[in-house]
Design goal:
single chain; 242 residues; mainly beta; 5-stranded antiparallel β-sheet; 5-stranded mixed β-sheet; 33% strand
Length: 242
């Protein structure tokens, strides 16, 4: 399925964006408000073509590698089709932190209205952190964003990050939870049943000998949204049985 069909966006036949727009907005940045709508022509062009940073570097012959380039060919982002036909994409990262200067984890959100247009929203880092390999689950007009891989410096092994996105105003707020949470989980699955979000699979970040390692999650957890309380449901053995 092409992007025009999937997101209802009219993609130009050719890339036709003046270099000045690239120079002004080529670098990633965090938002100033919760949310800040970003109308940067370069960012919008990248979304239309779902282009990675290397496409832009090649097109504008940019060989300066001191700062990463804003890109939209990402890994670890979430994508949700809402009941009203809108599509929301959240976060994701580009490239490998071990060897590429363009490595960046995003905290932005793109909302496709299903009628041919979209908006980009950015957020302050202290409101919504860079996020990837999370889940986003729609419940009663909100997207509940659970888990994160993120930057090493952001990880708190005893904590499960939970945020929720208001799908009308696009404000994001943290969800304070109690109970027996999974910890710093990523790459997991989320299913909602009766205002309870069931979390299974994935990796849980732990520290061994001062190093972060990902441990396979063998337990199912439930986040009760009425009480914002985590329940540890069951543990699975290596064969997947209780």
């Amino acid at each position: 399925m092409d992007i025009q069909t999937k997101f209802g966006i009219n993609v130009p036949d050719e890339w036709d964006l003046a270099p000045i727009h690239y120079q002004v907005d080529k670098q990633p940045r965090f938002g100033k408000y919760n949310p800040e709508q970003i109308d940067a022509p370069f960012w919008r062009e990248m979304v239309k073509f779902r282009a990675g940073y290397s496409v832009a570097r090649d097109r504008y012959q940019d060989t300066e590698y001191q700062q990463p380039i804003w890109g939209f060919d990402r890994f670890g982002r979430s994508m949700n089709l809402l009941p009203d036909g809108r599509v929301i994409e959240i976060g994701g990262y580009q490239e490998n932190f071990k060897y590429d200067s363009d490595f960046w984890i995003y905290n932005d959100i793109v909302v496709y209205d299903g009628r041919g247009d979209f908006q980009i929203y950015a957020y302050p880092r202290d409101v919504f952190p860079p996020i990837d390999y999370h889940t986003a689950t729609w419940v009663d007009g909100w997207l509940y964003i659970i888990g994160n891989l993120g930057y090493l410096s952001d990880r708190i092994v005893e904590k499960t990050p939970v945020y929720r996105l208001n799908c009308t105003t696009f404000e994001i707020e943290p969800v304070i939870t109690t109970g027996d949470c999974p910890g710093w989980i990523s790459h997991h699955r989320a299913v909602v049943r009766d205002r309870q979000i069931h979390i299974s699979g994935g990796k849980i970040d732990e520290i061994e000998q001062d190093k972060h390692i990902g441990i396979d999650n063998q337990t199912e957890y439930i986040l009760d949204l009425n009480e914002c309380y985590w329940h540890r449901v069951s543990s699975l053995d290596a064969n997947g049985s209780n």
